[in-house]
Amino acid sequence: MKNPVLQTFPLSTPWQTLDPFLFSVYHLDHFPKGNGEMGPDESLLKGRNLGSDFNPNEKWRMYHGQTIPGFPSHPHCGFETITIVNKGFCDHSDSLGAAGRFGQGDVQWMTAGRGVQHSEMFPLLKDEEENPLELFQIWLNLPKAGKFVAPHFKMLWNEDIPIVEEENAKIKVVAGTYKNVAPISPAPDSWAASPENEVAVWNLHVHKGSEYMLPKANKSVNRVLYFYEGSEIHIGDNKINPNFGIVLDPSEAVGIKTGSETAHFMLLQGKPIGDPVAKYGPFVMNTQAEIQKVMEEYRLTQFGGWPWPHPDNVHDKNRGRFALYPDGKLVEK
């Protein structure tokens, strides 16, 4: 039988990805109780490099937040962000006037297109207990024809996202049809919007001491399985430890045998775009000349400016999950 494992590699920060994805980051923070003002009820004076707190040896990080953890206003251009919050909450604000609080399984899909600013803050809403956060952010590239589309903001609420329960596994279908289960439609200008591109974002949880069969895909796609939590697994003759990425032959169904713990995976799959990639921080274009042009555009326009009172904007502590769209439409959950 053909070995479906083409390559394994240790997971770094960010995760290594293949076209059409640019990168993915995984945040797991065991935040303490809140201090009543949505920050941590622990001193920030000892050993934290506020503004750039990414110490992997700590149980939790402030990232670029000074009082509340998160990422204050920053620009993006030329690609999409898919933000999956399995635990905790994220407060979003952007230069389009859109805003939201999402979490507990919700997903935000944002097409940066020709340029947008946004902030992503992690308010600690519970003052009587800890505030764990588990978040994935995936950068999906846009083809040349989509680099300058209008920015787009979309919420995929946890209650609406298909979850497939199988005998030995649970599969959250964020993007890409899983067997006969179709996802919520992605953003309209996304590479994922065309089924022929076979873009898939699946969060898989395979029960301990069991075997699960991952269905095959078209041989023209790139397929990477990220094993981010659990005990060792076996794929054929390959023993693989957690915190490894697994590049798979998409034309082969893959049998995964788990060990003494439930195994947690993120699968990223898609037909390569194949365009040249020029990157400078949060800007992703096809040439360095385009990067320079986009940087000049940002200097001149700030991609529409920042309509919120603070760069690390957060919403009212007592507010529930919601999405405010650029056209003024409000959805509350």
UniProtKB/TrEMBL annotation:
It comes from the Bacteria. InterPro entries: Pirin, Pirin_C_dom, Pirin_N_dom, RmlC-like_jellyroll, RmlC_Cupin_sf. Gene3D superfamilies: Jelly Rolls. Pfam families: Pirin, Pirin_C. CDD domains: cupin_pirin_C, cupin_pirin_N. Residues 62-140 form the Pirin N-terminal domain. Residues 202-304 form the Pirin C-terminal domain. Belongs to the pirin family. This is Pirin family protein. The lineage of its organism: Bacteria, Pseudomonadati, Bacteroidota, Flavobacteriia, Flavobacteriales.
